[in-house]
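Hi R.,

Here's the chain you asked about this morning:
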Amino acid sequence: MEKTEKMPVSWSPVRHLVDYQPGELSRLLWSFGYFFLLLCGYFMLRPVREALAVAGGAEHIPKLFSATFVVMLLITPLFGWLVARFSRRVFLPVVYVFFIINLLLFYALFKAYPEQVWLFFTFFVWISVFNLFVVSVFWSFMADIFSASQGQRLFGFIAGGGSLGALIGPNLTRWLVPHIGTANLLLVASGIITIATLVILYLQRLSAQTTPIKDVAHSGEQTNSQPAASDGDEIGGSIWAGMLDVWRSPYLRMVVAMMVAHNLLAGFLYNLRGRIAEQQVQGIDQLTQFMAQIDANVNLIAIILQLVITPRLVKHLKMAKTLISVPVLLMVAFSIFSGMPILATVVLTQILQRSTNYGILGPTKEMLFTVVDRETKYKSKNFIDTAVYRGADVLAGWLFAGLMALGAGFSGVGLAALPIALLWMLLAWRLGSHYQRQADKVSGRQTV
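And the predicted structure, written out as tokens:
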């Protein structure tokens, strides 16, 4: 049976922010802390990545994302092998320790070879791989230890932990860069991510002491009421299962299509900001602080959405209406940008896109994986979150370059985003409706 909470439910101040049930509070708070540390460490480094990309030449951004995509494809079968052969207790910390060692190696390289463009670009590719893998693994773990109904209630709050870390991270960067320089940030970030890895180990032990959640079959079909595999069990299966199941499952294909539509718009904004910032902001330290300010604004808004807005949207509007709210807002923003294609409007549009991505789309997307089986949660989800995600970034980068080469200009790129946002709305509605039917089945309630 689940452990009884030491603190009465009515005493907890968390009760005012999230509708948790008895037996959930410990896992909820440790998951919040885990994501806080993870994104605090990453968002200390994200402004460095953005600054180095612009310093190396914003016109190279599509090539950098192409290189990242290739690396993702190479790593995906390796991760599939790790998941298939080892238990969750083993492969989760192994992934984080691997990236921590990489981070320390980059610190040594930045000290030995400062101002080297090849190192700038290598770090860009590495951190673009790092952030998707560690965040994907985090949400796979969350979808494994919380059920569909728990996800609807708790994932917004857990995501808020990440956004709080993502808010503090870039502000730490802005404060530390003048004192310790950019390279030494890598040491600080590696220490924070090391603590996050220790939290994983404790959370695994804590989750093993609670009643396992019920598993479901591929694409959301409910199985017999068998408990999920324990923390020490290997998931098994083929190393290629994550890729193959995406194409076999209509549900997963809809997830992919919605993600691609989102990333096309996000990629347009990323490249637009890079082109304009390259002309108006000079110097790596200045660029780092500029990017950090954007990240801080994004994550402040995201926290409010995650803790206050998103759980209520999902509860009252259900998944489909919640998912379409983001493309509707972006259609309005891109329409304004196309009429005023300047740095201020592209930054404001990107802040809207990223804050709603983290605050609304992110938590709801992770809820979509609470109604699939365990192998899908780790293998297919990781493939979607990494290789497919970066593949969409590559497509966005080259489409942007093509539009600029054809003379569309910044306004033309803004107009090209509108039909993509419309397609995204249609996909989001279908996907949200499908999820709701499956979530109702898993919880034992049929929709009327």
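The longest helix spans residues 284-339.

Let me know if you need anything else.
M.
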